[in-house]
Amino acid sequence: MTIGLDTRLREVLGKKTWEALKDGLGLETVGDLIGHYPFRYAQRGERTDLGALEIGEDVTVAAQVRAAVQKSFVPKGRGRGARPGGKPRDLLEVIVADEAGRTLTLTFFNQAWRAKELVAGRWGLFAGKVAQFRGRLQLNSPQYQLLAEDAADPGSAIQEFAGTLIPVYPATAELPSWNIAKAIHTVLDLVPTPPDPFPRALREDLKLLGYGTALRQIHRPESHEALGAAKKRLKWQEALVMQAVLVRRKAEAAGDAATAYARGGALLDAFDARLPFALTEGQRQVGDEIAAELAGEHPMHRLLQGDVGSGKTLVALRAMLQVVAHGGQAALLAPTEVLAAQHHRSIVDMLGDLAQGGELGAPPEATRVALLTGSATAAQRRTVLDEVKTNAAGIVIGTHALLYDGVDFADLGFVVVDEQHRFGVEQRDALRAKAKRTPHTLVMTATPIPRTVAMTVYGDLETSRLTELPAGRTPIATHVVPYTDQRWMTRTWNRVREEVAAGRQAYVVCPRVGGEDAEDNGGNGDKRPPLAVVDVIEYLRGGPLQGLSLGLLHGRLDADEKDRVMRAYAAGEIDVLVATTVIEVGVNVPNATAMVVLDAERFGISQLHQLRGRVGRGAHPGLCLLVSEAAEGTSSRERLDAVASTTDGFALAELDLEQRREGDVLGAAQSGMKSHVKLLSLLKDADIIEAARAEATALIAADPQLKGEPGLAELVDDLAADRGEFLEKG
Question: Do you know which Pfam families this protein is assigned to (predicted)?
């Protein structure tokens, strides 16, 4: 039977297998299955790390049987006060170990016959969900495949097996790795060598394997060297396709026509004249870049990175004023209502009467700043929509509500997307589609982005960085506090009281809401649930912070309540704000000087860096206390110590990338990522990504539609069709 990569798996595999592949892993075609690469390779004589197993994780481990013990027990009765009863049951406990001597228990109920197979000395692959019983890790009724040994000559059999690389695949409970391997071997034997989509001249120049050879070696590696060559070839293909999508998108956008907004203008000049401080050198430089691009006839597409407190909002506001001064409108898209409302308040405050366009006594160059969120009342929405449609509002700030039908701009010329990682390309494009001509676009993030991530995720944008903090920003001291040490905890809450007594304010941050929260405990085994704001605030009110004014803020509150709490906190009416991560970005209360992050080990490095950026924004030094149960020497504690050791967000971003999985960075669940990028590592393959960027730029410049490379063009078009999901972040 001759098959191709587009052949449906149901045509070549048994019903049970192809249904399991489709339902469990989303694999429907031969190409999908062959593209389901192993995530590691087991090898006899090579250590299998049983010490890294996590409770609740589905695993496949290679290990050796040490012992098999048959036991008998009587099941306990069910319900309160029940006594043991029922018929005795058989339990087979099998102890397996890796080369380092770490052990794992396998349990089988009423399957005593397995003791004949699972004899001491046999090696096998064992698959199941990791559980814990009486302090020991175990797999309950795991599936397994024993590895054959030549009984006549066990020494040579072991030596032969020691050189064999066994692929271990991402699997499901119903479909273990070895069944996936059998299915892949079946189709590999049937499918002919597929056409090679990689440009031949480039492949020869880079000395890469052919596509068919690479596919076979990734699944059936003859040696470590062959496996390395296969990975290199497939990584290069992933990188080249991805970069070609971004380079072509960037080239296409550069060819669009946009409205040119001359530098300066009465509104921007009036605002600059009122600034009570000087711009930093970085703000001036980036501002000049943006101003020049806004004055051009082709649309700006720029990413503005700025560490916490670097003044991105001011840079964006000056750009918006340049557009509004010449008759255009600017829209600022924010991911949450809290952040949108904060932007609205701060921009209105910075503009003063320049935000009172149409009102008696306002300067002639003044405009209006409108706010539109999903919780706006019908009357509020009608007012805003009218201001937007008539151009009475030059600046429009909002959440996803800006994307809805019925929000019609008079002349949208500039789109600013804040915290871009929380939006997808399709959402960005939905707002830009409301413009008569392609608008200029500025996307901002306060989350420092490693170079390879910027090149990969934001590769269709020019990039600017703000690294200099404005004058007046004070240092933030960060310390790790052991949750289990009562003396340290007492001192932590006393420090909060001291700050309040000095006339300042504080935050207490918790990982979840609580109450009727349906979230699981987020932990493993018998680990306690993460602390919740609704519980913590009651504890603080009746305990260590008794007598202080405490406020509660989380994402489940309605918009009016969130706004009321934030206004009260900003006005100094609340001493301590107990909140979830809704305060992570954009919240600006200069009088807040202290932050206590509870269960800090449950947050990522970049998230902790963002959170602590809420303090130290005024004239007084900031203090951030990371409260954690993480023990010394653990990876969790090392992450917290890293955050405490530096306030350099870009250095922390690189460390964060080292410690996170690739899928966490790019969104492995997104269809484009799942289909196209599986082997490429943003951390380890920076050289391939950079080189692929240069090659893609040359290819697209010479042949924008890649008509001379039809195989590559098909892959590029396929990924481009998925780009909304592929580039969706968060």
Answer: DEAD, Helicase_C, RecG_dom3_C, RecG_wedge
